[in-house]
Design a protein that fits this description.
Elements lengths: L2 H12 L3 H20 L4 E3 L3 E8 L2 E4 L6 E4 L2 E8 L1 H7 L1
Antiparallel strand pairs: 1-2, 2-5, 3-4
Helix pairs in contact: 1-2
């Protein structure tokens, strides 16, 4: 499912226009992004939690040349599925 498919599904389930569904989905994405940028978690009970994890710097290898390279530390977005979602997927 891509974003367009999700907008169609939201519009049909909520009985709203595709434009309204698109605006709602974009609002959710923006709010989630802003919360994560400020270091906050986004928890949707039963669905899951989005949060930020720190990945430390490490040494890697270029697979083509075998040369050792340093991979910088960075922050990554992590998603942990909630209990309801986990049960539905099994």
């Amino acid at each position: 499912m891509n974003k367009g498919d999700l907008i169609i599904k939201i519009a049909a389930d909520a009985k709203i226009s595709k434009t309204q569904a698109n605006a709602a989905l974009n609002s959710f994405i923006e709010a989630t992004s802003e919360a994560l940028k400020t270091g906050n978690k986004v928890t949707l009970v039963g669905f899951g939690t989005f949060d930020i994890s720190n990945r430390s710097a490490r040494i890697g290898r270029n697979p083509q040349t075998g040369k050792v390279i340093e991979i910088a530390a960075r922050k990554v977005v992590r998603f942990k599925a909630g209990s309801d979602l986990s049960k539905d997927v099994k």
